[in-house]
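Hi there, hope your week has been kind to you so far. Would you mind checking whether the tokens look sensible for this chain? I owe you a coffee for this, so here goes:
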Amino acid sequence: MYEHKNNITKGFTSRYQVHNLVYFEETNDVNEALAYEKRIKGWLRKKKIKLIETKNPGWDDLAKDWFANCYHS
């Protein structure tokens, strides 16, 4: 998250200036996480929005306080 919020990692987040984490799930199983991520990527945008709004209706940045010195413009 730190790398994404500070445009250190090239890709979608730096290209489109997307820095807010609006949804996440935790697991101890990397393979399970990758499979779930792949499955969600295949969903229609409408279904993804419904998932986010079910857990985070205000679209708040869930990682806003994770890094004390994390700035982006």
Notes: The chain has one domain: 2-55. The radius of gyration is 13 Å.
